Amino acid sequence: MSARATRRTILGGLTATALAAPALAQAKPAIVVVGGGYGGVTAARELVRLGLGVTLVEPSATYTSCPSSNAVIAGLMPLSAVTFDYAGVRRAGVTVVQDRVTAIEADGRRVHLAGEASLAYDRLVMSPGVAMRFDAIPGYDEAASLAMPHAWKAGAQTDLLMRQLAAMEDGGLVVISAPGMPYRCPPGPYERASLIAHFLKTRKPRSKVIVLDAKDKFSKQPLFEAAWKTLYPDHLEWVPAAKGGRLKQVDAGAMVIEAEGGRFTPAVANVIPPQRAPALCFEAGLADAYGWCRIDPITFESIRVPGIHVLGDASAAGAMPKSAFSANAQAKVCAQAVADLCGSRKPDEPRLINVCYSLAAPDYGFSVAGVYAPEWDALVSVLGAGGLSPDEAPVAFRAKEAALGAAWYRTITRELFG
Asked: Which residue ranges does the chain devote to CATH 3.50.50.60?
C-alpha cells in the first residue's frame, strides 16, 4: 500500500470513528512519545503546544548530547556541558516518565513499561535513536566496547574515550574505525578525528590518529581533507576501503585491530560499529530487514504499523541524514501531522531542512545544508537547494562557521531543555 493510500485509510477511519462516537472525538487525544533526545523532546513540546496530552517515556534522568560530544572527547569542554535534565521539559507541560518501554501493544494502543505499568495512547511517537550492531565486527561486542569504546552514544562511553586519550603517553597511536552507511551523523567520525588530531598536535605532538574507513567517500570530504592538509599533515591519516581501511576483526584484550590493509596495535581504539534501529522497533514490527523503520514522508507514520510514528535516527527518511537537526525538523512536522490526524484533518506536504556544522579545529568550522520534500514514499533532496561551505575561504570565514555551529548548539539545547 502506498503512503498516500495509507493516509487516506487512516483519515477515513478517524472520520468514521468521529461520526459513530462524537463524545470520543471531543476527548483530548493521548499521545505517548518514546525517547528523550532531540527528536522526542521536540515532538513532545510541539504536541503540548498544539493542545494534545503528552507523556514522554525516557529511561534516563538526564540526556547527554551527541552533538558537541566530540569536543568533550578532545578536552575542549566538560561532559557536563552536553548533559541536561528534563526539568525544563516538565515545565513546558510534558508528563515525563522515567522508565523503559518493554513492549508495544499496537492493536490495543498501549505501551508496557519495565516498572510493570502501562500507558494507553491514541497515537505513539517513537524517537528511540540507534542500536550498535555488536554482531557486525568479529571480536567486537558490548564487553569489547569497554576497552575499545565506540562513544557513538554520548555519556559513559564519551567519558571513557576522553580519559583514554588523556592518559595515553605521547607517541601513542589512536585508531578510529568508521562504518559504512547508513549510520548516525555521517560526518561525525571525521570531526572526531580532526578534534583528536588537534588534541594530539597541542598536547601529545609525537602521536598520530589513523582513520580506517569501510567506505571510499564521506560527507564533506573535500572540506575535511583540505583542513587536514593544512592543520594536521603529520597527525592524521585517512585509509579508505579501497586501500584496506575496512575492518576484518578486533581483539580488545590484546588491543589489536586487523583491517584489510594491515594490523594495528593502537594505544587508543575508537571502534564505531554499524548501526540499526533499536530492538524495540523490531519487536513491534516497525523495522524492516534493512534495519530501519520505513515511514510515510508526510506524517512519519510507520508504513508497517498504523498509529505509530517514527522519526529521527531510527527512521528510514530517504535522503535526509541521521542528525540532531534532522530529528528536530522531523519532530515538528510529525507533531503537526499527529495533531491534524487526531483532528480528522489532512496533513500538508512538508519541506524539511537539515544543516550540519562540523569542526576541524576549535576555530575552524564548515557546514552542509539540504532541503527535503516528499516524493512518492520517500524524502528526496530538493535540487538547487542547500549546499556546502565554499572549498576555499579565509580563516575568518572558517572561524565564523565554527561560531555559528556553537550558537546553533546553544540555541537548540536551550529551546528543548530549558
From this structure: 3-59+99-130+277-346, 134-274
Helix (H, G, I), strand (E, B), or coil: what is residue 35? coil
For residue 243, give the DSSP letter: G
| Residues found in the chain | 418
pLDDT, one tens digit for every residue, the chain (418 residues) = 444 443 333 333 333 333 333 433 457 899 999 999 999 999 999 999 999 999 999 999 999 999 999 999 999 999 999 999 999 999 999 999 999 999 999 999 999 999 999 999 999 999 999 999 999 999 999 999 999 999 999 999 999 999 999 999 999 999 999 999 999 999 999 999 999 999 999 999 999 999 999 999 999 999 999 999 999 999 999 999 999 999 999 999 999 999 999 999 999 999 999 999 999 999 999 999 999 999 999 999 999 999 999 999 999 999 999 999 999 999 999 999 999 999 999 999 999 999 999 999 999 999 999 999 999 999 999 999 999 999 999 999 999 999 999 999 999 999 999 9
Q: Are strands 293-294 and 315-316 parallel, antiparallel or unpaired?
A: parallel
Distance, in Å, from the CA atom of 330 to the CA atom of 346, rounded to the nearest integer, reads: 17
| CATH top-level class of 3-59+99-130+277-346 | alpha beta
Question: Are residues 290 and 316 in contact, defined by beta-carbon separation less than 8 angstroms?
Answer: yes
Pick the CATH number of 134-274 from 1.25.40.10, 3.50.50.60, 3.40.50.2300, 3.40.50.980: 3.50.50.60
Global pTM?
0.92
Rounded to 5°, angle at Cα 381 from 378 and 383: 140
Distance of CA 104 to the CA centre of its chain: 22
